[in-house]
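pipeline: protein-struct stage 2 | run 1193 | Addiction module antidote protein
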Amino acid sequence: FGQRQHSRSCWPQENVAMEMPQGEKEMTTHTRSHDESVLDMLREDEAFAIEYLSVALEEIDEGGGEDAFLIAIRRLIEARGGMGNLSKNTGLARPNLYRSIAAGGDPKLSTILKVLQALGVGMSKVVSHRADVGSQRTDP
């Protein structure tokens, strides 16, 4: 293979060139961001969505845990059609949803339950998943 030009940094720079061996075709690499991948998994994989929310719920009592749980819910909302779609499915006004689920929001339990149900991952699934995971752990 050809020689790679290096800068002082160990991370490749945009202007770093790599020579292709003669006769080799350059491969096009399609990459997606981590966020795009997570959103796709939240959209398509119910087990992943339940685990994602379960972990956020497990950490809710830690510093910043409430906001982290709301962020997890917002990511699931984004993955599954957005706030407008959720508003239609829950019958809750979009501005109220934005306000309740925003960072620092203080949604009522009934709002969280409606939202999770509309997203297809009811709270009972999230809680029972945590209980199942907890019962499978063994103490060292």
